């Protein structure tokens, strides 16, 4: 059975919003693409080491968070 990352609809919307913001503010679709690629790479890292993120059970039991880049956090639930 292969493991994969499943993104919530809200996460997909957040990534779309981040892409739009970076592309508009920096006038660079390349910078926006690079950031989304960084998220994708980080998500794939979580497949190998799902417990690498910090437990944040006070937010929701079983939830973890990890820093993708200084200003961006990813919240996830390993399964």
Q: Tags for this entry?
A:
elongated, alpha+beta, 79 residues, 3-stranded antiparallel beta sheet
Characterise this structure.
The chain has 2 helices and 3 strands. Strand 2 and strand 3 form a beta hairpin. It has a single domain, classed as RelE-like (YaeB-like fold, 2-Layer Sandwich). The protein has a 3-stranded antiparallel beta sheet with strand order 1-2-3. 47% of the residues lie in helices and 16% in strands. It is an alpha+beta fold. It starts with 8 loop residues before the first helix and ends with a strand.
CATH H-level homologous superfamily name: RelE-like
Task: Tally the beta strands.
Answer: 3
CATH fold description: YaeB-like fold
- CATH hierarchy class name: Alpha Beta
Quick rundown:
With 79 residues, this protein is α+β, with helices and mostly antiparallel strands. Helix content is 47%, strand content 16%.
Topology diagram in text:
Elements (H helix, E strand, L loop, with lengths): L8 H17 L3 H20 L5 E2 L8 E6 L2 E5 L3
Antiparallel strand pairs: 1-2, 2-3
Helix pairs in contact: 1-2
